[in-house]
Amino acid sequence: MSYKPWWSGGRWSAICDRCGFRFHSDKIKTEWTGLKVCGDCFEVRHPQDFLRVEPEKIVPPWTRSEPEDDFIGDICYIWERSAYPNLAVPNCMIPGNDTVPALLLTELKG
Fold first, then answer.
1. Has this prediction a pTM greater than 0.70?
2. Are 38 and 19 spatial neighbours (Cβ–Cβ below 8 Å)?
3. Contact 97, 85 (CB under 8 A)
4. Nearest-angstrom CA–CA distance, 5 and 8
5. Domains of the chain by residue range
6. Which of 50, 55, 68, 73 has an alpha carbon within 20 to 30 A of 103's alpha carbon?
7. In the 8-state DSSP scheme, what is residue 54?
């Protein structure tokens, strides 16, 4: 069995930052993350990290303000739409609308 000394001129012992094993200093490389790692632990930076992508335009090419709400008219309650006297209201009354009894509509109006 031959003996190979660990020490050699210009080299020193260094520990891999990733696996923790001891190597000669010439076997350790600096990774893109700044870690000093051995050859087995060394990772090349991914090529997608170097892509320059044009920022996305989020604003539409043209816009316009929201129009104001148009109210068609007043709200007509069910008793105002009837054709009964003292319950009907002008512009709401429907002539001949007597499908709901007048007493019930009077109670609803309350």
1. no
2. yes
3. no
4. 7
5. 13-46, 77-110
6. 73
7. P
